[in-house]
Amino acid sequence: TASCVTGAEHPGNTRVTSLRDPGVMRIRISRVDTPTPDLERFLADHLRDMEATAPPESRHALDLSRLFAPTVRLFTATVDGVLAGTGALAALEPGHEELKSMRTASRMRGRGVASVLLAALLDDARDRGIGRVSLETGADDFFWPAHRLYAKAGFDECAPFGGYVEDPHSLFLTIAVVPRTAVGAAVAAGR
Questions:
Q1: What are phi and psi of 50, to 5 degrees?
Q2: How far apart are CA 76 and CA 82, in angstroms?
Q3: CB pairs under 8 A, 24+ apart, for 11-19?
Q4: Is 134 exposed, middle or buried (0-12, 13-18, 19+ CB in 10 A)?
Q5: What strand order describes the sheet that includes 25-32?
Q6: DSSP-assigned letter for residue 61
Q7: 66, 144, 153, 167: which has the fewest C-beta neighbours closer than 10 Å?
Q8: From CA 37, how far away is CA 137, in angstroms rounded?
Q9: What is the pLDDT of residues 13-53, one digit of tens each?
């Protein structure tokens, strides 16, 4: 698997990260506010992937129109200009957001794209003072790589949140993130 070597902030909500990988892969994480044909196809494939994993009432992936709602921040990961992944943060309540639409292109799976994208999303939440990020993911074997990703990042199982209810097809996870404003205040106070 790839591991992060460098990361740099760029204007316009973009982060470029180089990974240790044969040939050094550069992943660009960008916030997206308008759909493109490539993004529409990628997200349609995401919804199709979910169809075989659970009955309709147990699938909670957002469609394209809901991903561009004012309360959702959608990000893409690109490698050499090609869409490699998506992820979003949706507001639940003040200080609490939900991770949505995490997907990595099949050709890029296992190369670190999801790890870099998840780290960028959690950094975005921290930078905006968000203290908790939760998610619902499928319980089907199809989602095991995602379960490992979230566990490695520090997510813990939790009860259903927001409008979710207990569902044998769902796994609910959460992570407390320390907002950068709190980190800065602790450093200034000598803690």
A1: -75, -25
A2: 10
A3: 13/75, 13/124, 15/120, 15/123, 17/116, 17/120, 19/111, 19/112, 19/116
A4: buried
A5: 4-10, 14-19, 25-32, 72-79, 82-93, 96-104, 132-138, 170-176, 156-157
A6: P
A7: 144
A8: 26
A9: 555 554 444 566 889 999 999 888 898 888 777 667 666 66
